[in-house]
Design a protein that fits this description.
about 325 residues; alpha/beta; six-stranded mixed beta sheet; three-stranded mixed beta sheet; 12 strands; about 40% helix; about 15% strand; globular
């Protein structure tokens, strides 16, 4: 309400509640139907597949609660339901991407009854929890920067990500999947390039180290007049890291004619609600089993998704500096 030129309606109500909680169901039942329901609740990092517990939390948030929300609002449908997907849902190689592809299948199963759409995002530059965000945190703590040199990612700004969501909500047709129409040669960057550009912006030159320990030791000697900053760049060796990103597969129908900077995936195959609910029941039973393993989950998802080549190395991002 302090911003210049920003229109705020007289009544703006926010609630700090989990969208899977009973109190949220009461809000939906008593305050709806709504014009737009936009779901931004997402486990969005590959880091979330480190063990069976983090995986259950991720699938509960990305898939199970999304399904329960759609079941609830199907009784009084909004004019549009939107939720956020990811570029990692196209030919997924990690369980986060697989969870989002399954989430897409869930919302498409409701497309006949509820106008639904989604957007496959690129990485939002410097968003909370991202590697570039971590670079800034490490600079503030005078810690070395660390990144894989062989991973390329598309990036969008926070403003651009909001614009994608707004356009999808207002202009998308039911079943549409929006994505930013980016060029790989122009818009895809390595994390090492981002680290080097950030250091240059801050007045530093990279001091290239050959190990995590060497980088830590070099950080100890940093002082106010230092012109070099320690970095450790390495070849990726953690599970689920795709070397490049893509927004669609060769099997999907693409429309690039409607917008200059956005593409739309059209005519996405839609599974029946009965099939989706059977899959969700099976996954919930898998997680409730005392013998549940990551390998069990991968095998099940390969059956459901058809195309899921999980990259397993036995290492996760929490084991890297």
């Amino acid at each position: 309400r302090s911003s210049v030129g920003l229109h705020i309606p007289p009544v703006l109500v926010t609630y700090p509640v989990n969208f899977g909680d009973p109190v949220f169901s009461k809000i939906v039942e008593k305050e709806g139907p709504f014009d737009i329901i936009a779901n931004f609740a997402a486990h969005k990092h590959v880091r979330s597949e480190k063990d069976i517990y983090s995986l259950e939390a991720m699938f509960d948030n990305n898939v199970f609660k999304t399904n329960r929300l759609l079941e609830k609002i199907a009784l009084t449908p909004p004019e549009k339901f939107f939720c956020v997907s990811t570029d990692k849902a196209a030919n997924p190689v990690n369980l986060m991407g697989a969870s989002k592809k399954l989430m897409e299948d869930v919302i498409m199963a409701y497309a006949k009854d509820i106008p639904v759409c989604t957007a496959r995002f690129a990485n939002v530059a410097f968003s909370n929890g991202s590697l570039p965000f971590g670079f800034v945190e490490r600079l503030m703590k005078r810690q070395p920067l660390s990144a894989p040199h062989d991973i390329k990612r598309f990036l969008v700004t926070p403003d651009e990500s909001g614009e994608i969501c707004m356009l999808a909500c207002l202009l998308g047709e039911s079943g549409d999947i929006f994505f930013p129409a980016l060029n790989a040669e122009q818009h895809m960057h390595t994390f090492t390039e981002i680290a080097e550009q950030l250091l240059a912006h801050c007045g530093f030159k990279p001091l290239y180290c050959t190990s995590e320990q060497e980088a830590r030791d070099a950080a100890k000697s940093l002082h106010l007049g230092s012109k070099e900053y320690p970095v450790y760049f390495f070849k990726s060796d953690t599970s689920g890291e795709k070397p490049y990103e893509e927004f669609y597969t060769g099997d999907e129908v693409i429309d690039r004619s409607k917008f200059d900077s956005l593409g739309i995936i059209k005519n996405t195959p839609m599974k029946s609600l009965a099939e989706i609910k059977q899959q969700i029941n099976h996954l919930e039973s898998l997680f409730n089993s005392p013998d549940a393993t990551k390998a069990n989950l991968v095998e099940t998802l390969q059956t459901y998704l058809g195309r899921f080549d999980h990259l397993e190395t036995g290492k996760n991002l929490d084991q890297k500096m």
